[in-house]
């Protein structure tokens, strides 16, 4: 079981590494809104079905006990059809924002500098959630639209890992959600 977990970890590392290697670097100039976006990597992936779990120290070995244990860790990642994977670097000047937009798939967003505030149409009254450097959050994509803003006085930066249906538009500009006005 441990060998399978190690092989899966190596596979995930290779997947991200292959995405980074196969991608091309493209940058857009800084916009009047103060956001500079650079695609660090892009790769198209075949259908995925990854599953991993790990028994943590002190955890029992019974399958039933593992399934109910708070110490159990499990990852399941499944796609149907081809997927475009992106690694995206966004640099924000103080006060800059992305504008309301959505993505056709999920994004894992890492805040690497400054503090970013996320406004999500799925959040009650689009309440802001601030994320300082060293933290991360997930944008589920799909029907959820959101706006990222650097409300600080210093530059901020995020790195996002995104997975979307192959050939789909990565970012879709959206109007302000009615519940967020």
Question: Which key features would you list for this structure?
Answer:
181 residues, mainly beta, Jelly Rolls, 6-stranded antiparallel β-sheet, 3-stranded antiparallel β-sheet, 2 helices, 13 strands, globular
Could you describe the 3D structure shown?
The protein is mainly beta and 181 residues long. The protein has a domain of 119 residues: Sandwich (Jelly Rolls). It is built from two helices and 13 strands. The strands form four sheets. The chain has a six-stranded antiparallel beta sheet with strand order 1-2-5-12-7-10. It has a three-stranded antiparallel beta sheet with strand order 9-8-11, with no helix packed on it. A hairpin with a 7-residue loop joins β8 and β9. It starts with a helix and ends in an 8-residue tail after the last strand. The N terminus is likely disordered.
Question: In a nutshell, what does this entry contain?
Answer:
This protein is mostly beta strands and 181 residues long.
Q: Which helices and strands occur, and which strands form pairs?
A:
Elements: H1 2-22, E1 26-27, E2 35-45, E3 49-54, H2 63-68, E4 73-78, E5 83-92, E6 101-102, E7 107-113, E8 115-120, E9 128-132, E10 136-139, E11 146-149, E12 156-165, E13 172-173
Antiparallel strand pairs: 1-2, 2-5, 3-4, 5-12, 6-13, 7-10, 7-12, 8-9, 8-11
Global structural class: mainly beta
Largest sheet: 6 strands, antiparallel
CATH class descriptor name of the domain at 25-45 and 83-180? Mainly Beta
Please give the number of β-strands.
13
Task: Say which CATH homologous superfamily of the domain at 25-45 and 83-180 is assigned.
Answer: Jelly Rolls
CATH topology of the domain at 25-45 and 83-180: Jelly Rolls
Low-confidence stretches: 1-30
Q: Which value, in Å, is the CA radius of gyration?
A: 18 Å
Distance from N terminus to C terminus (CA atoms, Å) equals 51 Å
Largest sheet strand order:
1-2-5-12-7-10
């Amino acid at each position: 079981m441990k060998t399978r977990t190690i092989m899966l970890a190596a596979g995930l590392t290779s997947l991200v590494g292959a995405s980074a290697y196969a991608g091309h670097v493209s940058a857009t100039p800084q916009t009047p809104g103060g956001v500079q976006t650079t695609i660090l990597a892009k790769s198209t992936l075949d259908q995925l079905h990854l599953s991993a779990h790990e028994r943590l120290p002190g955890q029992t070995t019974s399958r039933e006990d593992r399934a109910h244990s708070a110490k159990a860790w499990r990852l399941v990642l499944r796609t149907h059809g081809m997927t475009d994977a992106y690694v995206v670097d966004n640099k924000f000047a103080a006060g800059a924002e992305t504008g309301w937009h959505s993505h056709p798939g999920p994004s894992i967003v890492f805040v690497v500098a400054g503090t970013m505030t996320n406004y999500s149409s799925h959040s009650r009254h689009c309440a802001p959630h601030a994320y300082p450097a060293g933290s991360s959050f997930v944008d589920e994509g799909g029907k959820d639209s959101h706006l990222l803003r650097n409300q600080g006085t210093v530059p901020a930066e995020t790195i996002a890992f995104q997975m979307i249906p192959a050939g789909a538009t990565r970012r879709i500009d959206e109007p302000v959600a009615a519940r967020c006005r």
